[in-house]
Amino acid sequence: MVHDVYGHGQYVQHSLMENESTECLADAIEAFKLSNPSWEQIRVIVIDRAMGELSLLETHFPHVKVILRHFHLKKYIRSEMKKSKYGGPSSFDMYQVEDAVDMLRTAPTIEDYTKYLKYLYFLLEPHI
Question: Are the CB atoms for 100 and 116 separated by under 8 Å?
């Protein structure tokens, strides 16, 4: 799925692969590039937590920022917050942290993104 700057999305390719080996993923990426001549305009790729071939994407799309899907980011932060070395779940306001992640995800400008990131650090800083 590709989304434009207005949030409108469309499917650009489906690839049936035998497995998620480096060779199969590289073939799928090359097929995608052949079918989509404007692939160089891609700026961000969002991956699932199970995506093990991050370096492959970075090699084939050198100017692209690869990010973790926000659902998995929130899940990861939640699991980290529960660890005793960070004070356990009672030492955080989990809803504030998740709200900060949501604000980051929907920030309309880099200035807003930076402000929300600082807020997230403010929430987590006493524990890290």
Answer: yes
Residue 49 banded pLDDT, cuts 50, 70, 90: low
Strand, coil or helix: 68:
strand
Integer Cα distance of 15 and 30 in angstroms: 11
Q: What is the DSSP string of 80-128?
A: HHTSGGGT-GGGS-HHHHHHHHHHHHT-SSHHHHHHHHHHHHHHHGGG-
Q: Which residues contact 47 (CB under 8 A, 6 or more apart)?
A: 54, 57, 66, 67, 68, 69
Q: Which residue has the higher pLDDT, 78 or 104?
A: 104
Residue type at position 39: W
Distance CA 13, CA 67 (A): 20
Label the pairing between strands 2-3 and 44-47.
unpaired
How far is the C-alpha of 52 from the C-alpha of 89, rounded, in Å?
Answer: 29
